[in-house]
Amino acid sequence: MAAPPGILEVRCAGCGETLEVEHGLTEFACPDCGMAQSLPPE
């Protein structure tokens, strides 16, 4: 199933869970394992 428009699917570097992240968000934490992560700016 594809993510809704405006959402990116990324894999958590800690637990491997697939996360849905809003476009433009560069820093976030996994809700499952709590690992802080970052994406490059678009």
TrEMBL record:
<feature type="domain" description="FORGETTER1 first zinc ribbon">
    <location>
        <begin position="8"/>
        <end position="42"/>
    </location>
</feature>
<protein>
    <recommendedName>
        <fullName>FORGETTER1 first zinc ribbon domain-containing protein</fullName>
    </recommendedName>
</protein>
<dbReference type="Pfam" id="PF23547">
    <property type="entry name" value="Zn_ribbon_FGT1_1"/>
</dbReference>
<dbReference type="InterPro" id="IPR057024">
    <property type="entry name" value="Znr_FGT1_1"/>
</dbReference>
